Every structure is written in C-alpha cells, then in structure tokens.
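Reviewers of the previous submission asked for a worked example of the structure-prediction workflow described in the proposal, so we include one complete record here. The input consisted solely of the amino acid sequence. No template or homolog information was supplied to the procedure at any stage.
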Amino acid sequence: MLRRLAMILVTGLAFAGAVFAQGGAPVKIVIAFPPGGPVDFVARILAQGLGEELAQSVIVENRPGANGAISAQAVAKSAPDGTTLWFTSAGAAVMNPALYDSLTYDMQRDFAPVSLVVNNVEVLVVNPANPATSVTELVAQSKQDAHPIPIASSGIGSMPHLAMELLADSSGAKLMHVPYKGAAPAITDVMGGQVSGFFGDIPGLIGFIKGGRLKPLGIAAPSRHPLLPDVRTLDEQGIHGVESNNWYALFAPARTPPARIEQLNAGVRRVLTSESYRKRLLESGAEPMPSTPGELAALVKADTAKWGRIIRDKKIKGE
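From that input alone, the workflow returned the following structure tokens.
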C-alpha cells in the first residue's frame, strides 16, 4: 500500500512538473536595456509571439547596467529549465570579453544559444545642417578641418564606437570619439549640433531620419536597406571594411535540456516567419533572422574574434 501511494505521489509530481513547464510557468526574457529602445521593442514583439507559440505567459524584464553584465549574470545563475532567457545585442555577447579583464559571465560556459532573432545594420547620420551628403564628403571635410570631427557613440567599446574606429582606419578620416551613456543622449546631441555624427542601429534612427531631424550619409552593410533605398553603402562610396551588424539574439542558461532549446528555437522561428510579426519588425528597420542554435554559436565565436581583435589593437578598455 505504501509503495503504491509513493508511486502515485511521484507520478503526480512528475505530471505537475510537466504541466508547470508547459503551461503554468511564466517565461522571463531578461534584457540589458531600459524600456523604450530598439532592443526592448524587439524583445516585446518576440515575447508576445513566443507566448502564443508556447502557450505560456512570456514577460520582459529590463535589467540595464554594467554594459549588459547585470542581465547576463542574472540569467546565467537561473535554473536551466528554459523559463529564464537572456535577450541581448551583440555588444554584451561578443565585445565585453575583450573590453573587460574580468567578467562575471562566460559565453561558452554559462549560456546555451537558442536563436538569432534580428540583424541590425549601422547607418552614419549627421545633423541636417551639415553640408556633407555622403560619407566620402564627411571624410574630405575632416581632412580639411583644423580639428577632428566629433562623432558620438553610445559608450566606450560599443558598436557605434567600433564602427567609427573602422571608418577612421579605412578612410583616414580625422575623427574624435565622444562617448555617451547610451544612444538616446548621443542622438539628441547630434540633432542639437553639439556633435557632428553618430553610427547607430537603423531601428533607433529611422523615425528621426524620416522626420528630417537626422541626415543619413551611408550604410555600414554589404547592401542597401529597404527603408533607406537611396542611401548608399560605404562600399559603394569606396570605403571598405566598415561592416557593422548589431544583431540581437536569445540565449538560455547552460545545461538547459536540448529538448527545451529545440522547443524554444522552433517557437522563435515560427514567430519570425509569421507575416504579422515579421511585418512589424521590418517596418521598424530590423531584419528578422532566425537561426539554429549551432549557427548562433558559430556567429558568437566569429564576432568575438573579429571585434576582440579590433578592441585589442585599439587598446580600448570598458569603463
């Protein structure tokens, strides 16, 4: 009798656990940015679609700070059951390892790749009053001016900062890096004329460009962007080697069961190929780009090497 009761209890607990994992347990997507920015926007679209696909409540938790380390550490220490996920831009995943001598997380040790979510190419923008109509004209302007042209970034070692460094190396432009604490104040000062330009993700800039408050000079990508068809790439302007892709991707804690990773990956893939969600992302300027976990792992490895080499060559250190 006791053995039978024990078996019933174990079976019941197992069933309850399965129900909790499939339907009752909310999934939390932790991001390293405050509400309102492009990463938060994409995360909330993903959360809505993923909730429908998994038949679970999916919420977004904003944990900004320490260049992404706070959010990364929170997820890395979470239970590896697929209910706490990390959604990050490329910086915290592939740039931080070279920027900081000691990180509280390790991408290979602490995380399991789930899927790439979107690609975000960088566009160089200036104040509309700037006479330059192309990146080549801005480069020529910098060589004629007595002082370097001040170019803003969202922080030391950020994608906008490194894109600026690549532009200076490739073109010989005289540029001065002006780091800000985030993209918003940098963009505000470009519009106000305090600094001359800014490399940024198209989703975060497209509204200002369409509204005439910022002027795009060039796209740091292999091809033109569908929302800015008249803006030439830097390659088209004869400036090579400045390609900068600030992708966003989803990770789970290490040791999350492979079956759960597959379930999450399939859900992300269905969301990003759904016409309604895909349209919303494309209209924002982000390019939906689902991947396999293996493809994301390979991208992390390749971009860690690429950006790490540039950071070390330039002797850039995170704050």
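The longest helix spans residues 2-24. We consider this example representative of the routine output the project will generate in years two and three.
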